[in-house]
Specification:
10 helices; 331 residues; elongated; 2 domains; Heterokaryon incompatibility protein-domain-containing protein; alpha+beta; five-stranded mixed β-sheet
Length: 331
């Protein structure tokens, strides 16, 4: 029977979208429904949630620019997955049988959203590349928010520099050298990366003095070059990279410094993770596929039965719209 709901949900909820749901409780729930039912509930019953979701889903499916270009009649069965990760809010709409998943998020929380769509997270449109200024601005904003809003973070004492760090504002052509610290309490970045099987630049006993003088830029693999440039863009002077800040063929130094690695990462102002790279030559950044850049915005005025008309005419002219962005999720 359609739609089918997770056991225990109240019968009074809308049969198209299973709302209203209780305030976010951190648990996963899944609802099977039909697009035609949601459209009907919005049009004839005035369900605002059905209206918002169905209009957003149709915008995604009917857009030929994303390679779908489906008609409403071609799509029936939907699955609404709430809080897939369990630990955080999320709403994902699955077009059953077509391998299409649509993520739902909002720009900011509002009383209407809290009351009607409590599981929808606050999100942002995905920038075209992780190297973009937009991505950097977002990262810096998160760091600032952490430092100013989290009591556990803004009360921590300053951390001293690791034993050795890269000075990325050093004199010389490359502007990079290995610096031996003296207990300074200065913010620094740390790089987390996969070594892989391809050899790359490391600090050895025979190159230690040379690296203290200057590290030739061209000898740095792309991931390290990107990390140095990002550290500079973030306004930091020092960067810790394990392979360059620990003498790799000195067993005593390695034992001493490797034992401090957890503290090094914990004490960093920011840890830059090259999570997509299998080795030091793949770099930090990624271009976002075109289909993940598309964001579809649905606007309506609460109390007027959003989605009650097929084209939504009149809803977008509201001076106080509730905005909900619907986008294909990242890979």
């Amino acid at each position: 029977m359609w739609p089918s709901f997770t056991p225990g949900l109240a019968a009074a909820r809308c049969r198209g979208c299973d709302h209203p749901r209780p305030p976010y409780a951190g648990g996963y729930a899944s609802v099977r429904t039909r697009l035609s039912v949601m459209v009907s509930m919005a049009k004839y019953v005035g369900c605002e949630v059905c209206g918002v979701l169905s209009r957003g889903i149709l915008a995604v499916l009917e857009d030929e620019g994303n390679g779908l270009g489906l008609e409403k009649e071609e799509v029936e069965e939907l699955q609404l997955d709430f809080n897939l990760a369990g630990a955080r809010r999320s709403l994902e709409v699955v077009v059953v049988g077509r391998g299409i998943k649509v993520a739902v998020f909002v720009d900011e929380a509002t009383p209407w959203l809290t009351a009607n769509l409590p599981d929808v997270p606050i999100g942002r449109a995905i920038p075209s590349a992780t190297s973009s200024e937009e991505s950097l601005s977002w990262a810096l904003a998160q760091i600032e928010h952490c430092k100013t809003s989290h009591p556990a973070c803004n009360t921590l004492p300053p951390n001293p520099l690791p034993s050795r760090v890269l000075d990325v504002a050093a004199p010389g052509t490359s502007g990079v050298r290995l610096y031996v610290s003296h207990g300074e309490t200065t913010p620094y970045a740390a790089l987390s990366h996969c070594w892989g099987h391809r050899p790359f630049l490391r600090t050895l006993s025979g190159s230690l003095d040379d690296h203290k003088n200057e590290i030739v830029w061209e000898r740095l693999p792309p991931t390290f070059q990107h990390a140095v440039a990002l550290t500079r863009r973030m306004g930091l002077r020092y960067l810790w990279i394990d392979s360059l800040c620990i003498v790799q063929d000195d067993h005593g130094d390695w034992r001493t410094e490797a034992a401090k690695m957890a503290a090094v990462y914990r004490g960093a102002e920011v840890v830059v993770s090259a999570s997509r790279a299998e080795n030091a030559y793949m770099g930090l950044y990624a271009e976002v596929p075109e289909r993940y850049k598309r964001v579809y915005t649905v606007e309506f005025k609460p109390g007027q039965g959003a989605g009650s008309s097929d084209d939504g005419s009149g809803d977008e002219e509201s001076s106080t719209p509730e905005d909900e962005a619907i986008s294909p999720p990242p890979p």
